[in-house]
Amino acid sequence: MSESTVSESSATLMVDLIISLDGYASAEGWPGWWGLEGPEYLAWLEEEGKKDLTMLMGANTYRVMSSMSEQALGDESGFSEEEGASLSGLAAMPKVIFSSTLKEPLAWPNSELVSGDAVEAVKEMKRTRTGTLSTLGSLSLCRSLLTAGLVDRYRLVVFPVITGKTGHERIYDGYPDVALELVDSRTFDGRSQLLEYIPRVIDGPPGSRQQ
């Protein structure tokens, strides 16, 4: 049995990221999803939102996403219909926010604040909750959870752009070495690639005696 396998009564932790081909989470001057979200991808996002998910995020992501979610409810939000539905739908989802600076009550509906150590809190959540715990943005949180060996699934949607000049938020900086076992993949709209892995933090090349 894989070390990442968890019992049916416990929660699965998934790091869930969108990424450019060269490893950035966003880029200056580019819209959300690099402007390449198509109907297949948006339909998949809608279906994912119906699952038993609890979203995990840090304070910065909370501030950005809660503001965008509220903006999406307006008549002149500037978002497409599909973008608006995806953003406003986040309000109904259970969310856990890790922050030592935010204070309760949080304005975004269905948001729970955790001010203590995120790694220890997620360990307890994995033991006591069910369904899937899924990160939203929050690159430092994702890195900490992966380094601690808590991540059961590592899922990327790779968009076909290289943002070497304008890219922001390098995703893999500060990561440990990680071996990845591919367990799922698909293509959206003939251009964006979903890759889902079981991750394993390693101290040397996979297959070496250290492993």
Automatic annotation (TrEMBL):
Report the residue ranges that make up the Bacterial bifunctional deaminase-reductase C-terminal domain in this protein. Answer: 12-191
**A matching Pfam family:** RibD_C
Supply the name of the protein: Dihydrofolate reductase
The record lists the organism as: Arthrobacter bambusae
